[in-house]
Specification:
single chain; about 850 residues; mainly alpha; Leucine-rich Repeat Variant; 42 helices; elongated
Amino acid sequence: MTNDENTENITTEDRILTVKKLCTGLQSLDRKIRKQTYVDLQKYLSDKNIEFNNQDLRTIFIDIHIYVLNGLRDKTETVREQAIKFITYLVIDKLPLNDYYLTYILPVLVERVGTVELIEESEEIRLQIVELLNAIITRYSNTAQLVPFLNDSVTILAETVKDRYPSIKELSCHTIINLATALPNDFHKQAESLIKPVLTCFYHQRYKVRVEAIYATGEIVMHSTYKAIDEVVGPLAEKLFDQIPMVRRAVGQVAARWLLEYRDRYSFFHKILPLILTGLNDEVLETRTEAAQLWEKAGIQFQQENEKDFKDEVDYLIQPPKYYPENVIRPNIGCRGLVKRNIIKIAPGIANELMSWQEDVRLRCAQLLCAIALHAESDITQNLQALLPSMYSAARDDDTRVVANIERASEIIGCFVKCNVWSELMLPIVEDAPHYGHLTVLNGLVRGAPQEYFVPFVEKICQVLSTDAICCSRKNKYQVELIKCVKALAEKNDKGTDNETGYHLFKIAVSVFSLKHPDNVNKINDLEILEELRTTLKLQSVQDLWNLYSGRLLKHINKNPKLWVTVTEEECIFLLTLSNMGEAFGQNLDIIKDILAEALDTECDGESRLKILFVLATVFEKKEVIFDKAQNVSGFLEKLVEDVFVPSLVWHAGATAEAIRTMAASCLQSALLPTDGVELFTPQTLRPVIVNLLPLLVSLLEDASYRSRQIAVDCLALLKENSCRKNIWDTDDLVSVYPEVLKRLDDPTDKVRLCALRNLPLILKNVPESFKDGTYRAHHEVIIDTLMIHFDDDDEAVQDMVKDVLNQMVDINKNELLKKIDRHKPLLRNQKGCEEILENIAGLTITEV
């Protein structure tokens, strides 16, 4: 007989008997035999030459299931592993669908992995048990046989999803989804009991576990009551801050599914919307794209479901608003409708989370605010009062991404909300106690506001910002934001100089420049900002700005200059204005003169006076500019000498007083320097100046500061030069000056000696004719004798300078000079110098003949 014939003759009893005989190996004390028995059983049952009908298999299962299932309790891991493989084969591949088999299998699985106390110690075995359960659920999907085992399945999964082994967690979440799909009509009975176990996976370090847990949560909520969504929305929102894009995408997908399919979605739109809208601003392009597609799909469905409500909008409001933001695609009607109907519930949450202590939360909320504002459009108006305080706070965030989104949200709000609404909400707060967060939001609102509607409000806002309490701040970030507001407001102004806007913007800008924080030196470009302001005011040049507004600004800051100190805001503004106003200086001499007279009073702060005098000296170096279009320059300078220089040059004890005298002399020197095209004094105004200054400058020649002595010499020479041009320099003036300058040749400081030698030829040049008379011969002798002493100086440069002064004496008294040289020549080392002077005298004599 052949093998086939032998196989055919094997009865059912023989087959069952063979299986039973094989099962005796499961009771062996040798683990290898027990393991091999499972292998042999599977091999026998899978023999292609032996056919088992359903009744055979049922009988075999009844006879062997006790021994087989006991293998799951075996002490040896490899035996338990093989037992699971055999059971999987038997239930999934061999046995027909019948809840009878599951009646025996599921309780054992519950026993091994479905209890609080850990029975199955092997992670690999626990994983295989979950795989077996998943396979059973898949095979029995949508069958009545699986329904009785819903509780057992949920019991197992509720524990395995909390397992320490990541792969078990991941597979358990996936199995939960399969279970919900397999029993769509019954899963709701046990769904909510899985929520808390699944939520434990949200914080696992493996991102695949988090992703599966999110999908499982989405499925559970679909089969649960309203309580479930309340419980999971918070943890899901936290996953929007996950570092892995796949996790954030999963949240968006789940939220989109709820928007489309959840039966009570209309009651929970306000909780679901943030989960998907946040994805519209995700860092990853793929996530943004997918979120936009899902969101658009949800909007279309909502529009179709509420077709009657949107009928008018669909029929008549086809085009976007006139000033809709550029480069932005307007969301569909359904998406906008969804947000508009729920913004009143969403806005308080955003306002609260914008001030969260967590950086990621603040960032996502700022991004969400942008999306909400774009969708809600003008409907966000009623929530603006609640949102603005949080926006002010978020605008001061250390994370620049948060600030950027707040700025963007402010622009969008400014585009859609009426200007009178947000201005009435903002301006009282800005006037009360502003910080740079207020200015950041204001800047965004102004930039977003359509110019056509905003123009009537520009002047009012500028007026508020230009008040001293707001624009005079030394805080670095505050200054940057204030300048941004200036730029934004300037762009919106279309009335040129026809209103007060230009002055207010100019005042703000100059105030910021004057009080600029050191950190803002490179951030705030003064010339660039003034150029932008000039352009918007339609002026020819930046100088026109100063010409128009500097006088009014000077009058505004003229508040008790006697009380100014170096940090006084008005003084800082005054000094910057003086330095930059150019030809406007000459147009405002009266107000400048009044301020200087008070600010440089001898009773004022010493450091402040020094600073003002220094700036004034610098300004006087550009007299051809500042006095170009000035009227009555002589009167201005006469008053300045009388009220400022004379009191400042009077000697007072102390180092500060000494420094003030030096700086005042330096400033006077700058003022007296002749300038082409500018006539500083008339003969009538210069004479009183000489009378007042000469005694003080002569006194200054004895000052302790060598710099004061040096400048005093220069000033005396300049006074003499100016007087000669006006023909009012007389002999008395000369006699009062030259002896004091001559004394400086013995000064202990070389710089002063050289300065005196350099200026003596100027002082002795073009002397009054009366001074050349014999009456003043004694003066001539003093001058020549003093010079002859220094003619033999060791320094050749000094010798040459003395020679220049002696040559100047040729014009005053040639004979006396010749006599003195003849007398001193034998005693001098500087024979060469003597010869040159004699040659000069001889040459002049020949010329006269």
